[in-house]
Specification:
DNA-binding, homodimer, mainly alpha, 128 residues
Amino acid sequence: MREYYTITELTREFGVSTRTIRFYEDEGLIKPVRRGRTRLFRPSDRVLLKQILRGKRLGFSIAEIKEIIEVYRAPSGEEGQIKLMIARIDEKRNELEQKRRDIEETMREMDAAEENCIERLAELRVSQ
Amino acid sequence: MREYYTITELTREFGVSTRTIRFYEDEGLIKPVRRGRTRLFRPSDRVLLKQILRGKRLGFSIAEIKEIIEVYRAPSGEEGQIKLMIARIDEKRNELEQKRRDIEETMREMDAAEENCIERLAELRVSQ
DNA sequence: TCCTGAATTGACTTTTACGTAAATCATTTA
DNA sequence: TAAATGATTTACGTAAAAGTCAATTCAGGA
């Protein structure tokens, strides 16, 4: 495992701009260490970036991604805090399940659309 | 099946504002009929709205949703057109499959986070 | 007929998530 | 040591997706 990544290494690996990565730092999602002014990204920062981009692909906002990342972290409080955390996890899970249903429905309609196309192709070949 | 829905009926059913629905009309996603100036939404418009909101939940932009809705419609061209349509459907399906993988990964991390919480709770009870 | 509540239009505003440009600083290479 | 290369900061710009507000219009009921 590499110790550090530079910002451009990450931009190349994930296909995002430096502006984007710095923006995520401004928003408090990643906290790379510094050597002078230069940012050094640890493997854990890289994992965070991966999680952020995954959240983005699912249509979560930065604020929502922040929440998701927070629940990943081990809980440190007393009973009440931890129970609250479990409730938040369940909530996020419900959102994900909704997205899953949305995907299944969209997939089904795509299947229907494709079958439709294939049928049309067959018709065209017969009528020629 | 109802013949027409008013705009406010749809806002209530789907929890969106009239502005939102009119915005989708401006973007060419829905085309309700008119009685005078008043919009009348047919069941097919309602289905379209449902599809739009589903796309939104999955993080698709208006432009992408437009594309998706277009591929749902029966293809009317000649062979080349239809084959192109099939290619576009496959592309969208790939995007959906990526989202599906993203959901599964996120779910797994949620599970781990929750187990972590439960473990912490057990520890707290033992140490009391 | 008058009023009230809905709906429409148009314009301006806001939020989110970056893009872009300019100036500065640091480091490596010739 | 000069030049090129890469990173940083600051600040303004922008596109998308609505929100908000004001002025109108219109249909239906008392």
